[in-house]
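In response to the reviewer comment on reproducibility (Comment 2.3), we provide here a single inverse folding case reported in full, input and output, so that an independent group could reproduce the run without further information from us. The C-alpha cells appear first.
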C-alpha cells in the first residue's frame, strides 16, 4: 500500500481561512487535492481568498462567513459544508483574535476573556459541533493551531500563552474522546511566523526604531534564541498540517508538533 500526502476526495474545513496561517493551510490542503471550506468573519477577505484558492489544485472551494464565538453561526456553517460536499474529513482550527504585546498584569480581564472565547472556546465549539459529522473510516482529523507561547516563555505574550496552553489540553482530551471513532486529533505549535499581520508590525516597529524590517526580525531572532536563525514562512507551518491530515499520520493522535525553528529549548 502506498502512503502519501494526497487528500483527493476529502473535504477540509478551515476556520480563520481567509488569511494568515489559515489561508496557508487551506492552500496546502487544496494543493494535495482536498476540497476546502474556509470560514471567517470578513466577507470581503473571504471572497478574495476563495478566488485565489480556486486557481490552485483540483478540489472545490467554499467560503462561509462565520463567527466562531456564536454557536448558531457555527452550526449553520457546518450545515452549509455538509450540504456542499456531503462529507467532512478534516477540521483545522486556526481562527483567533489579534493580540498586542503587553504584560499579563496590565491586561484587562475582558481582553483575556475575549481571547479565550475567540480561540480556546472557539476551537472547542467548532470541534464539538463537527465531531458527529467527521468521517470515521480513517480520514477523520481535527488539527488545532496552538502556539509556542504555550511551551516557551515569551515576554508580553501571557494572554496568548494561556489560550494556547488551553488548546494543548483541549487537543489531548478531544483526541482521547475521538479515538474510539477512529478520528485523530492533533495540534501544531508554530514558532515566530511571517504572516502578513507580523510583517505589518515589523514595518511599524522598524519605522519607530529607525531600522529596516529585516533588522527588526533579526533582533527578535537573536533575543528569542531561535536556533535556525530566522522566522518561519506560513507554508512551513501548513506543511505540518498536511502531514497530520494525510495517511502518513495514521498512527498519530493527541500530539502537538512544535514547528518553531528551535525556539523551544526543552531537553525532554
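Designed residues, in position order:
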Amino acid at each position: 500500500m502506498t502512503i502519501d500526502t494526497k487528500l483527493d476526495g476529502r473535504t477540509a474545513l478551515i476556520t480563520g481561512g481567509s488569511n494568515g496561517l489559515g489561508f496557508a493551510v487551506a492552500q496546502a490542503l487544496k494543493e494535495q487535492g482536498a476540497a476546502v471550506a474556509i470560514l471567517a468573519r470578513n466577507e470581503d477577505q473571504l471572497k478574495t481568498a476563495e478566488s485565489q484558492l480556486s486557481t490552485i489544485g483540483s478540489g472545490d472551494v467554499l467560503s462561509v462567513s462565520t463567527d466562531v464565538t456564536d454557536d448558531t453561526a457555527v452550526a449553520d456553517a457546518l450545515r452549509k459544508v455538509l450540504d456542499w460536499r456531503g462529507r467532512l474529513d478534516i477540521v483545522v482550527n486556526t481562527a483567533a483574535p489579534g493580540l498586542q504585546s503587553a504584560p499579563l498584569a496590565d491586561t484587562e480581564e475582558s481582553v483575556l476573556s475575549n481571547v479565550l472565547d475567540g480561540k480556546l472556546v472557539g476551537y472547542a465549539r467548532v470541534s464539538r459541533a463537527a465531531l458527529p459529522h467527521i468521517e470515521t473510516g480513517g480520514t477523520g482529523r481535527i488539527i488545532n493551531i496552538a502556539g509556542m507561547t504555550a511551551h516557551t516563555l515569551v515576554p508580553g505574550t501571557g494572554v496568548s500563552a494561556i489560550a494556547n496552553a488551553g488548546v494543548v489540553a483541549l487537543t489531548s482530551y478531544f483526541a482521547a474522546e475521538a479515538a474510539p471513532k477512529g478520528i485523530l486529533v492533533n495540534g501544531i505549535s508554530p514558532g515566530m511566523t511571517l504572516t502578513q499581520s507580523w510583517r505589518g508590525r515589523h514595518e511599524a516597529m522598524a519605522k519607530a526604531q529607525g531600522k529596516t524590517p529585516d533588522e527588526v526580525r533579526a533582533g527578535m531572532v537573536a533575543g528569542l534564541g531561535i536556533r535556525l536563525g530566522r522566522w518561519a514562512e506560513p507554508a512551513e507551518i501548513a506543511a505540518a498540517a498536511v502531514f497530520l491530515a494525510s495517511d502518513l499520520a495514521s498512527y498519530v493522535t493527541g500530539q502537538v508538533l512544535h514547528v518553531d525553528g528551535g525556539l523551544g529549548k526543552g531537553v525532554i
